[in-house]
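Before relying on records like the one below, remember that each one covers exactly one chain. Contacts with other chains, cofactors or solvent are not represented anywhere in the record.
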Amino acid sequence: MDTNDFSYRLKEAMNLRGMKQIELAEKTGVSRGALSSYISGRWAAKSNNLYKLAYALNVSPAWLLGLDSTMKQNTSNNRIIGARIIEARKAKNITAKELADKIHVAASTISRYEKGEINKIKMPIIDAIARALDVNPMWVLGKSKYPDKNDMIKSWNIPLPDGAFRPALKRVPMLGYAAAGEPLENLDGQDTYYVETDSKYHVDFCITVRGDSMINAGINDGDIVFVRRQPEVENGQVACVEIERSKVCIKRFYKTDNGVMLVSENPKYAPLQFNETNCDDFRILGLAVIKQSEIH
């Protein structure tokens, strides 16, 4: 860590936020002596004080360290998640320590989740928190207004007015989450419920997408993608694939001379290459056929 980078960016953030040293000390609990040393470049903050400073200044900890060019910390969704964890925990009369014990993390980690200090909480953690608090994981993420998953499912079945076209529907199992980004956790062990879709589509299961790597294909974070189960797809088609029997993702699929390539629809993500030297088990689960999105 370059202390000069840290010093420069700390002063830049303080100037941008119009925050004096004494005010920053009061907001963070970091002593004025320590802040003086940080500002002078004598040393850089360690992990605990780093997060306190980043949170108070509303900047990314990585930016503050000089490791990232993006200053703004994406805290809005983190704070929604934190607020909903607190709300559900209090409704169930569960302490932070009790929740921490239930999901096997430190109580200080729960505190950081609730304060919105941790970016990109992994879906297995969201699922574990939701199960421990008996709430809908999509509500925890801020993607649903229904704390109870059953209420969310019922809300999808709104009665149609008389004379309206009534498509023939079929129920499709929701197998869990898949990534549009880095490969996500597998589908095994996730609760199964059913989503209705038009019966004219030949689909066998659906998944909820996490991430933004397929946005240029119109597939966004939180969308439900319906998949036709099949062992092969054509080059360029959007496939649901399983990697090493443990990770699942949605990507454009291409065969290469010595393996396969998975390509995102977002230029910030590099293609993923798999062959017999770096992957023991690769399986196509099916072809992505249609998707269901919320209108914002």
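The mean pLDDT is 81.
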